[in-house]
Amino acid sequence: MLHYKTHVIAEDAPWVVFVHGAGGSSSIWFLQIKEFVKHFNVLLVDLRGHGRSKQITTSKEERRYNFEVVTRDVIEVLDALQIQRAHFIGISLGTILIRNLSELAPERVQSMIMGGAIIRLNVRAKVLVAIGNFFKSLVPYMWLYTFFAWIIMPKARHRKSRVMFVNEAKKVAQKEFMRWFTLTYELNPLLKYFEEKDTGIPTLYLMGEEDYMFLPAVEYIVSHHTNSYLQVISNSGHVCNIDQPHEFNSRAIDFLRNISARSLPQNVEAVPQLVAI
Fold it and tell me: What does the record give under GO molecular function (predicted)?
């Protein structure tokens, strides 16, 4: 089972589950915990091969991971803790796992908050994936990860989040990194399916205005899916929970408290004004 940590404030308090991205760990949420535990029970998980989660494999899984396998790891933790329903917050690739969880077990998902959401791969992202697949066996994986971090988070104010993710990635074994990289082969058909299917689950997208690779696709999807909302955070890049933690926390908590009260937030527009980046 995945390594996890809980913060319980009350038995009847709603649960919030944090899911990090590839190469990270639950430690990337350190700027969120203090605020969220004022209102919610919190569950943090380390995905397989990340943080303090030991490698979880069977003979078949050892050869290649897929999104269903790594998503069911999270469901296994929910089952162990007897958490029947929760709010889910993800960043980057973690948003794909949450969206996949909403397909595998929709009854477990009360709402979703997608930070730096990956909805569609633009041309630049597809080129990065192709470069990674070509060079992954030829160069040290940290060279690739550092290169990707610079492309996705290029500005000086992204340095904190960029350095943190690179440092976390150094803790992931190269073989484990390669297994996770195989997930890129599933991305395009899976993301296309997610774009075409509207879950109707209340979903807030929190995106940095400088997340130039992924923000345009999110702007499109919130105009086509019901119960989907977008808030754009100024002076922030892809990892907006680290770049602008106060804004991320306040917007996410307001959304969740309104969902928990069975009402939609009044300060979130269903079709947002586009932001020039």
Answer: hydrolase activity
